[in-house]
Specification:
The chain has about 325 residues and is an all-alpha fold. The protein is built from 15 helices and no strands. The protein has one domain: Ribonucleotide Reductase, subunit A (Orthogonal Bundle). The protein is globular, with a radius of gyration of 19 Å. This is Diiron oxygenase.
Length: about 325
């Protein structure tokens, strides 16, 4: 199965024209649309408890309900911090993508539009992190350095494959959060804006990835699979910064080990990645040595788990 079988590739200019039209009708200014002065409701979760990295573990049982809710705010802040990191990389890669192309084309004008969207999203995420009472969870120096390398060596399939991966993971978590009225209102408002605008970004990335992947030779595809696997591994394993555990009184090293082995957390990551795994796996972009990193990141399910095994098999 190929990406084309799942998502027919339309004319590049035609799809960009439609995306530009959609952007004109449904774009948001988070600084205006969101009530940033509203108090944070600390009596509710910021994300569903079953999506938290320690849910179901012995450490989870040690926490009070108040600590669990505080952990939810810090884990949302950590995920948003990763979002800011990758959006900053993506904006640079989109500028490079547009650099040698005709700016009068719809395709390049939509790339510029997406860059503007991502700028607003990064500001929105940053403001949300601050309002949740959490710090900006800066990545470790190795991952920070690898991010610089990736944006420099990225080719077309890597740019759009990597973008699609990060956007799909966030999209799945936020689609669930935005409709759950039991969750923190600010997180729901941020999720709603991001979901609406990222739907266009994912369409753009999905079709551009498919278009560029078709023309790659076997060596280029092998290179792309390996680098994409590394990007996926480092992005996924850094979603939850160990410092979030210290914020609720846990030992970061012990909690990180528990989260890494937690079947509930592995299943959540597999669930969040299932669509992008189907898309990229169907194209043959998750195979060979690169597939090792997807599995090591916990995105292809747990051995013996029928639900996650079915997702993995489709890839």
């Amino acid at each position: 199965m190929t990406v084309q079988d799942e998502t027919p590739i339309t004319d590049r200019e035609d799809i960009a024209k439609r995306l530009l039209r959609s952007s004109a009708k449904a774009s948001f200014d988070p600084l205006v649309e969101i009530d940033w002065d509203a108090p944070i409701d600390e009596d509710v979760y910021a994300i569903r408890p079953e999506r938290l990295s320690l849910y179901g573990t012995e450490l989870w049982e040690r926490l009070t309900e108040e600590q669990r809710k505080e952990l939810s705010r810090h884990e949302v802040a950590s995920i948003a911090s990763i979002g800011i990191w990758f959006e900053t990389i993506l904006m640079q890669m989109l500028v490079r993508h547009a650099y040698d192309r005709d700016p009068t084309s719809n395709h390049v004008q939509y790339a510029y539009t997406e860059i503007a969207d991502e700028c607003r999203h990064s500001v929105m995420f940053a403001k949300m992190v601050g309002r949740l009472g959490a710090p900006y969870y800066r990545l470790d120096s190795v991952t920070q350095f690898l991010g610089r390398v990736f944006k420099t060596i990225s080719n077309g399939p890597l740019t759009f494959g990597g973008a699609l991966f990060v956007e799909e993971i966030l999209d799945q978590l936020q689609r669930e959060s935005m409709v759950d009225e039991s969750l923190e209102p600010l997180v729901r408002a941020v999720s709603r804006i991001h979901v609406v605008e990222e739907a266009r970004h994912m369409r753009y990335a999905r079709e551009e990835f498919a278009r560029m992947w078709q023309g790659r030779n076997p060596v280029s595809k092998l290179y792309s699979r390996i680098v994409l696997g590394l990007v996926v591994y480092y992005s996924t394993t850094r979603l939850i910064n160990p410092k979030v555990y210290a914020a609720v009184g846990l030992n970061p090293r012990e909690a990180r080990r528990a989260a890494r082995r937690n079947p509930h957390w592995i299943d959540t990551k597999t669930w969040a990645a299932r669509k992008v795994v189907a898309t990229l796996g169907g194209a043959g972009a998750i195979s060979g040595p690169g597939r090792y990193f997807w599995r090591k990141a916990g995105l292809l399910g747990r051995p013996g788990n029928s639900a996650t095994a079915a997702t993995s098999a489709r890839a």
